[in-house]
Amino acid sequence: MIMEARAVTKVFGATHALKGVDFAVEAGRVTALFGENGAGKSTLMKILAGIEQPTTGELELDGEPVTFASPRAAADRGVVIIHQELSLFPNLSVADNVFMARERVRHGMVDDRAQRQTATALLTRLEEPIDPRTDVSELRLGQQQIVEIARALAQDARVLIMDEPTSALSAAEVEVLFRIIRELTADGVAIVYISHHLEEALEIADHVVVLRDGGLVAEAEAADVDLAWIVEHMVGRSQDELFPEEHVESGGELLRVSELSVPDPRNPGRLSVDGVSLSVRAGEIVGLYGLMGAGRTELLEALAGRLKAVSGEVEIDGELIEGPVAARIARGLTLVPEDRQRDGLVQSMSVGANLSLAGLRRFIRGPLVSAQRERAAVAATMRDVTVKAAGPDAPITSLSGGNQQKVVLGKALLTQPRVLLLDEPTRGIDVGAKADIFGLTTELAGRGVAVLFATSELEEALHVPDRLLVMAKGKVVREVRRGVASREEIMVASEGGER
Amino acid sequence: MTVAPPMSVADAPSQGAGRRLKAFNLVLELRAFIALIVIIVVFGLMSDAYLTWDNLVTMTKHVAINAILAIGMLMVILTGGIDLSVGSIVGLAGIVAGVLLEGLTIGGSVLYLPVWGVILCALAVGTGVGAVNGALVTRFNVAPFIATLGTLYMARGVALLISGGETYPNLGGSPALGNTGFDVLGTGKLAGIPVSIWLMVAFGIAAVFLTRRTPFGRWVYALGGNARAAELSGVPVRRVTMRVYMISGLCAAMAGLIIASELTSAAPQAGETFELNAIAAVVIGGASLSGGRGAVRGALIGAFVIGFLADGLVILGVSTFWQIVIKGAVIVLAVILDQSQQKIQRRGAAIAAAAATERPAAARA
Fold it and tell me: Could you give the ipTM of this predicted complex?
């Protein structure tokens, strides 16, 4: 046993990211950590690596209690993390990145030659012959991830935490990584491995641990368990309870999108959405499944008016929909954005003010907002979407993730949409809130709203929509009705032939 | 209706600490107001001249100018912007009034506008400079700090160009031309109270309504709190941004007119560094420079704190140099208190949440 976390609790505002977790890693073994989005995996790893401090509970290293005030303090004791989000400096060279904040110094100056030599050696070991003088911004995403791994290797870790290290790697690159992991464990390094690719994680793991809603719910030797066991404990309830029953769609075509193309906001030379056509009928839930970068979010943001399309048309009920977000909301088209912290909520405002923000025009009397009408509508919506809050005046930051997401959904509903765009509405929320949100979605469809529902969770894609569109590289590559296609077929389609 | 958070046995031990935290929080929340009362009491005890009706009116008259500027500044700061050009607009508005009251020569004949026309023109010029700020920020994506720094120089330069660097000495107008009465703004009284104080009250009430009751006000807060979320909620981001700078320009022009009227003369240098006083008032009043947080009431109290402190120090005969040091210290102290209040609020939320934590049992295979 090298490192142990005991009864670790972490609270963010009113969110309990971790509820008293005991977790141990052993020398020379790979511990794979499983859990859905929001289960607390990343938070636990950030606590081990000194990025976050536990609210209660303690850490032990080699049997001694430790507290890491910073990631630097953890790294000095040999606990190193490879981040889920890339944390590189795009404006600096590969070598500079590998040695950031622990530069090789000679005579008071950075020893560039030594750094380059070591970096080259590390990259050779990773079978990625990148010139260490290259700026990181010139590397493709997978290469950047490899630089991130090289940076961790340069620190001679005893506990190495890999949080989604393969999300941008090719199959061959994953093989190389696995070879290196085996070399490291042979040297006695303890590895913690987190990945959304369950099969991949199970393949490399010696020991598996499952988190759900901030608690440790199951652990076992990898040899004793299979994928089904993992999924069962991750989800924590049978799918019949989580997902809504199939509903009968009705009504004619409400939303029609023809040949819509949207340039990549970060790289205008490329198309994020490439000639997509689709239609959604009144009362129908259409799913959009795709991997990261497939163009789901860009498609929905273009429909909502946040991104500009270069070509194509959007119609609701035969009327052309154009112009900025406000104009589209007025015509009955509303988006529930993917990232509720960044795009969904105004953190400095109350629950009530957030709820009424998009539909404020409905409460205007003369030049003023009618407080009475607003209060009534806010109270009704809080009831409808079952928000648990102290009241409409409670600060939005006092709510848990699931309740915040319900507020974002409620805000969209207050605009009385005819077409509702949901972008990953269940990301990072607990299972109960997920079931509530699926239930609401089905109920809305029952009232004749056309719902376009984007997700990267395969189970959701299979069980929630009436009809599923699979996107890859900006195009709709497959269309299947609910209950017809298998997981494998959809995965293969979403990968568009690669990996 | 809404569901109250469940209370459990685990809450009990933290209740005492929670209540103390709450009381402390209230003190911090009212800190600007408490500071103002402390200032009034302390100076009142130290000088007999301080707490007299006449002196209070005089001090409030001084405050009015900064308060009106602070109202405009608050609107901009609430959206997450900043307006450095207000001091220059103060000078420019005075000069515009000066030019128009002395008579505008157009093709050989001299045009005299009535006083209300002069005031409207000056206000329009201030609003126009605000519109330039707004356009720079929304259309040309210039950072507010830089955009308004540019107009700070430009507006001041234009004021100097128009006046040739000279002061317009006689804004009293002449009875023969029917343009007397400009001095009412700065020296007139209504019901025994100076007109400039009434103007501050009127601007204050209008601003409270604007920020608290209109959709525009809500949008201002949303924009400063999270611009992306505001845009996706259909808030007309550009229009709102444009308007806050125009309102700030309008407020600055009003302040400039009051100053020119008070002195019945307009100097192109009037209002230098006034933008900093306005920012200080807004910050002392509890607004966050990153936007989304703050209130008209706070900005007004902030203006009173600065004004009453400064005048009190003058009455006590404290040296000008010390006055500057003390003013700076008060601003820094205000921000430190603001930070600790936010920290306490966050800690209170974390304590409440941790108390409600339950620990699920683990399954083992």
Answer: 0.77
